[in-house]
């Protein structure tokens, strides 16, 4: 059956036109599902994406499509369906979801190239130029350039009648038309790079790896199911991924391997590229546009059967997808911070459901959400509890900074850490020093007893506001005066806390003037590729000590590092966020996991004001299951995820007065909606705030937030949707930006 109408989502940012529109398909125009098209819209010419076809139109006056941009579709029906789900689930406009699924493909510009097959001096050519003015002009323009010319350039120089003769000249064998962009040539180049990689011998799997692989295979018989691979650091998860991918490829299917940040973990790409030479494509933001296009085309052509990539690679246009692997599934980078604020884990599972394949989530420190689902049987739990070759997990010692202070040591290094650093340097081995710090740190800690002031309602650390001399809760807006003496031990050593990598670097330079130090943090890695340079330098022994922030926790493998020191474990512990303990445990476990990965045994020293906090004590003992049991109780008591979903609405504006008014209106509207809900639903929902965001001012805009908690995502969305509608109807929302985040990973 022929379809007469295309359903098009127009590229316009306006929630009011967040739907598809019908356009008539002109005769002879080839339009496929997922193609970008040019359409008339409100007396303007806009781009849009075809998301469906129909034989009838709901309205009588239908305008025709003007043109089709793509010669083939980059969006499969499955990916269109995935976008539709994203728009609905994350409350974002459909076009935004579509563009998020498509972004890199949008950049694949395939220029049409014209070249002459006959010389200008050829008698046929001369005759043409003399006798057929229009065609002659076209031919001469191409032939004179002596190399292929872009059709777009010809269109600029020649009139329409000449261009219209292109087909004719191609048919007569005088001109040839092709795409320029020569993907094959470029990807051949990429291939050579791959060949240069050492092809690894296939390894003998350890018994745990063999068992894990078998369990994954069993799960594979149930399409759409998820396996959680909980494997301690160094247990050899990568090898399990490789063999699972091999099985999928043998079935003629393809696989997607997602990693948190590929530029920090180039090893994983190397592993796959050498295991499946010529069949692996890589997708991440640090690639140039041309490189990305090469990889894309290889995927579209079915040549690349395995894609290794970061977050957005979850949308890679692989056909016959058989497996999606999410490595380090607990990582925060899997959550997109811009709208649509999706989480890779959720999108991967939806995609797996749509195409009937499986998902493997892997981590040494699974997210509470995932491990809870594994324990209740929703995911299949696969454990790998030993390191490869029975290598020991590194012994971890904690140092109580309160006691260091009592001995009069005010330096940032404890006696123990200093001693171990000295030993390590004497042996000619390497050290990683980890500074647990985020962009800002303004909690109040008592340096004598370790006490941190928390909200009595939310059990979240209060944030210090210097100007007001106040402590404030960023969930519920509770406030109190900042104490002058510690309420627990009456010490005057109570102050807000913060420490930078530069300070650490300086102190090392004084203590160990002979050692070279490298620094890896956001400041040091501003330039693209800078962190790779730093890490390569360190790997090659260019420095003895590497100082860095949480970036260091991400799966790095340095065999010569035998000492890892955590300068202060506490900053992340007191982030104003209910996940602060989980994040601390993850960071410490992952950082500790960097020690002793090679033949030489490693050791770890953690300095802290709270050595007894479970997230620190249990990381010291490498005991994730015990940490989980402890933390899940806290989550249950306060109704945090995984027991509830959280929806966070942030309002931002330069005018804080009006902003607060709006935030209050929104809070009011939300509470009204909640009351109006049927009892059975409303009872399990809760509204917190409005309160200023922990980052109250960002890029000159003030930010206030309202948090909605509840069991059912659907309820959260309908209450919020209705309240926002009211807000726009009855309040003055001019200049106010609103952003919605379902199950946010950060609360700043
Ligand atoms: P994880 O990702 O679980 O932390 P890796 O996959 O990086 O661990 O493996 C840890 C180390 O063990 C790596 O150096 C890897 O090359 C090595 N390894 C993995 N599996 C085997 C095996 N079956 N035999 C020998 N070495 C292995
Ligand atoms: Zn105290
Ligand atoms: Zn509170």
What's the short version?
This protein is an alpha/beta fold and 748 residues long.
Properties at a glance:
binds zinc ion, 748 residues, Rossmann fold, 5 domains, seven-stranded parallel beta sheet, binds adenosine-5'-diphosphate, globular, GIY-YIG endonuclease, alpha/beta, six-stranded parallel beta sheet
Verbal overview:
This protein has a seven-stranded parallel beta sheet with strand order 11-12-10-13-14-9-15, sandwiched between helices. A six-stranded parallel beta sheet has the order 16-26-25-17-24-23, with helices on both faces. The chain starts with a strand and ends in a 6-residue tail after the last strand. It contains 26 helices and 30 strands. Helix 1 (77-89) crosses helix 14 (344-355) and helix 10 (207-220) crosses helix 11. Mean pLDDT is 85; it is low at 181-196. It is α/β, with parallel strands linked by helices and 748 residues long. 46% of the residues are buried. The protein folds into five domains: 5-106, GIY-YIG endonuclease; 119-178, no CATH class; 195-389, Rossmann fold, CATH 3.40.50.300; 396-438 and 500-635, P-loop containing nucleotide triphosphate hydrolases (Rossmann fold, 3-Layer(aba) Sandwich), CATH 3.40.50; 645-742, Ribosomal protein S10 (Alpha-Beta Plaits). It is globular, with a radius of gyration of 30 Å. Residues 446, 448-449, 451, 486, 488-489, 491 line the site of one zinc ion.
Task: Annotate the secondary structure layout.
Elements: E1 5-10, E2 20-24, E3 36-41, E4 44-54, E5 67-68, H1 77-89, H2 94-101, H3 103-106, E6 112-116, H4 123-131, H5 133-145, E7 149-150, H6 151-157, H7 160-163, H8 166-171, E8 175-179, H9 183-195, H10 207-220, E9 226-231, H11 237-250, E10 254-258, H12 266-275, E11 280-283, H13 289-300, E12 306-309, E13 321-327, H14 344-355, E14 358-363, H15 368-375, E15 380-384, E16 396-400, H16 401-406, H17 415-426, E17 430-435, E18 444-446, E19 463-465, E20 470-472, E21 479-481, E22 494-496, H18 501-511, E23 517-520, H19 530-539, E24 545-548, E25 561-568, H20 570-573, H21 580-592, E26 603-608, H22 614-620, H23 624-638, E27 645-653, H24 656-676, H25 679-682, E28 686-698, E29 701-710, H26 713-730, E30 737-742
Parallel strand pairs: 9-14, 9-15, 10-12, 10-13, 11-12, 13-14, 16-26, 17-24, 17-25, 23-24, 25-26
Antiparallel strand pairs: 1-2, 1-4, 3-4, 3-5, 6-7, 6-8, 18-22, 19-20, 20-21, 27-29, 27-30, 28-29
Helix pairs in contact: 1-2, 1-14, 4-5, 9-13, 10-11, 21-22, 22-23, 24-26
The protein binds adenosine-5'-diphosphate (ADP) and zinc ion (ZN) (2 copies).
Residues 446, 448-449, 451, 486, 488-489, 491 line the site of one zinc ion.
